[in-house]
Design goal:
Layout: H1 2-53, E1 55-57, E2 60-61, E3 71-78, H2 95-98, E4 101-108, E5 111-119, E6 127-130, E7 135-144, E8 151-154, E9 157-159, E10 169-177, E11 182-190, E12 193-199, E13 209-215, E14 221-222, E15 227-228, E16 233-239, E17 246-251, E18 257-267, E19 273-285, E20 289-294, E21 307-312, E22 320-322
Parallel strand pairs: 1-5, 2-6, 3-11, 12-20
Antiparallel strand pairs: 3-6, 4-5, 4-7, 7-10, 8-9, 10-11, 12-17, 13-16, 13-18, 14-15, 18-19, 20-21, 21-22
Length: 324
């Protein structure tokens, strides 16, 4: 009887251990299977993301279309009232002088099909070869000189790093893609207005920076209208020097002409205000320079001293004087 009890007990213990081992083995197999599935899903997700975005750095791009290059985009010309200098000899500047970055973005309906970005140090700057399936697409090209690439969310919503606007050129047009290769020579337009402050009385040695705070324009761009599309509060801080007498900032006007309110502050190295001036109702116009010239640091230094406004464009606008 006693031996029978021991035998039964040992058999139960043995069966329990066997069941435990079976449970452990089954659990390990489940974990292995689960881990494998997770890795597979992550891998497929990464592939899907890469295929969906089709973002490319450089001058060429291909996708699932296997016909090879069938679209060649080349920037042939840029609308130029030269902002760097108002000289007739500047009427035909190279791309590398006018901008340092270009984004070519292709949409089909609401879908972004392809993005190609270029920087000025790359070969073939201003030209790109694409492979696209047959159909009609919307093309947006943005050329600028910001610190990073433009973000073209849609043709109607284009932003720039830190909301900083530089001299900017664009085109927005439809392209038709067929089986045969087709080339497009693109003519870009300038999309910004410039405000230029010229300091006649020299920048003092203790002034380290000039800060511009201005409203009335936009730092976000709509390529379908060629105008700004947000009411922005723009702030730009530029390094100052006694050797530099002009300072430039940009905005996207909401209309072909617009008005800004600009606060200009001269700062010392500790960030303290040395001089601050407010310019109201500053007229700006796309592809024009609004040029304020005067004695910024000295009040009434010369009898009748004032500020001269000059707007440059296809023709030189009438000069107006405003005392400050």
């Amino acid at each position: 009887m006693f031996n029978t009890y021991i035998k039964i007990t040992m058999e139960r213990k043995f069966k329990s251990k066997s069941v435990l081992k079976c449970h452990l083995g089954a659990s390990q197999n489940v974990y292995r299977l689960l881990f494998t599935c997770i890795c597979y899903v992550l891998a497929m997700g990464l592939v899907s993301c890469e295929k969906g975005m089709l973002d490319v750095d450089g001058g060429s791009a291909t996708d699932e279309h296997d016909g090879g290059t069938n679209v060649v985009l080349s920037i042939a010309s840029i609308e130029q009232i030269p902002f760097m200098e108002y000289e007739a000899t500047r009427a035909a500047q190279e791309m590398s002088f006018l901008c340092s970055r270009i984004s070519f973005v292709v949409f089909q309906g609401d879908n972004k099909v392809k993005t190609v970005t270029q920087s000025v140090d790359e070969p073939g700057f201003g030209k790109v070869s694409l492979s696209l399936a047959e159909g009609t697409y919307s093309l947006v090209v943005i050329a600028h000189s910001c610190s990073g690439n433009a973000t073209v969310s849609t043709p109607q919503l284009i932003t720039f790093p830190n909301n900083r606007v530089s001299d900017t050129f664009y085109i927005c047009q439809d392209i038709n893609v067929g089986a045969e290769e087709k080339s497009y020579d693109l003519q870009l337009r300038r999309s910004v207005a410039m405000f230029r402050l010229v300091v006649n009385d020299g920048v003092p040695a203790d002034v380290a920076q000039i800060k511009f705070y201005y409203t009335g324009g936009s730092s976000t761009f709509d390529a379908t209208t060629g105008r700004g599309c947000k009411n922005s509060r723009q702030t730009v801080v530029l390094d100052a020097s006694p050797d530099l007498d002009s300072y430039d900032v940009y905005t996207f006007p909401h209309e072909e002409t617009d008005e800004l309110k600009i606060t200009v502050t001269a700062l010392d190295r500790a960030g303290n205000t040395v001089v601050e001036r407010v310019f109201e109702d500053v007229p700006v116009r796309r592809n024009m320079i609004t040029k304020y010239v005067g004695d910024f640091f000295h009040d009434g230094g010369n009898a009748g001293a004032g500020q001269s406004i000059q707007l440059f464009g296809d023709v030189e606008w009438q000069e107006q004087l405003f005392p400050y």
